[in-house]
Amino acid sequence: MNNLQKIQHVMEFPPAEQQHGFALKLMELLVIPTFVIDASGKVLIWNRACERLTGVPAYEVLGTADHWRSFYSERRPTLADLVIQGRTGEVHALYDQHAHRSEGADNLCAENWCEMPRVGKRRYLAVDASPIYDAEGRLVAVVETLRDMTDEKRAQVALEQLATRDGLTSLANRRCFDDTLAAEWQRALRQQQPLSLLMVDVDNFKQYNDAYGHLGGDECLQRIANAVASEMRANDLVARYGGEEFAVILPNQALKGAAIVAERIRCRVEQLHLPNLGSDAHVVTVSIGAATALPSVDTDPSQLVATADSALYRAKHMGRNRISLPFQEPDTAASRA
Fold first, then answer.
1. Hey, what long-range contacts does 213-220 have (CB within 8 A, 24 or more apart)?
2. Strand arrangement, sheet containing 323-324
3. Does the domain formed by 31-154 have CATH 3.30.450.20?
4. How far apart are CA 286 and CA 265, in angstroms?
5. pTM, rounded to two decimals
6. CATH architecture assigned to 165-335
7. Where is each PAC domain found (predicted)?
8. Mean pLDDT for the chain?
9. 235 in helix, strand or coil?
10. Catalytic sites, residue numbers
11. What is the pLDDT confidence band of residue 327, given thresholds at 50, 70 and 90?
């Protein structure tokens, strides 16, 4: 028997019944987590790799439609369920934006975070759902395969944070500030809401650096960053604008509210009691310029930044450790404890 004959002998297929059993056994032993649901949404196959990934043994889900419990705490369809139920149009609402249909096929592909209640760990899964049709073209089952991409996703998030976070303070960096301000400006324009901005500058920071060195200066900036961030709402953004200057974006906040936030920040920094003999208060303080705009098609975010910068300059000119609002006379522009 030559090599070709040997190969042909090995590749000979068993009878139909044996083929079916062989296919089931092959799927059971696949290293890729895989499950199959029938046209009624009940689990036909739950392979060993799926057991390892979810922590759920096959006997708990076979013959049931409870497979969703392996991935979520609250009931929601898996990708295979969307295919079976003809609800593929909902994929973008239920999965991350990576969801898409494969080119030239009926396969549905998506990615999202899953809670994985049994193993107690959130996992980021890439999912493929492939329909199976009978000879008459009827949908009889769907095969769903899963890939654990948690490590890759976390690495991607870490890289994104490096691109948008300041290395010293962990606040948003200048690039993130510019992008966020542009996005919030457009949102405020659509919703006709005010958008406020605070420019916060550390007073006499050069003297502090000279007295305590660069390491002391770095620690000072970190503590101020934490103090400023502690006064923020969930949708506000604090960024390190550059050097010893910080910027705060306050969506849907009028000037009066922005002034209140600014004064809280000023007080919080002063109460850190970081010693600085170069200032009148003998502690590290900040000056803050505030500005508010109601965006229109004839304006842009740079005008808001310029207004806040001018207000900050006035606060510095008037003696530091104070806030300044735009278009105010000097005797009413500053607020000081």
1. 218/168, 220/274, 220/284
2. 237-242, 245-251, 195-202, 286-293, 323-324, 334-335
3. yes
4. 8
5. 0.59
6. 2-Layer Sandwich (3.30)
7. 108-161
8. 87
9. coil
10. 244
11. low
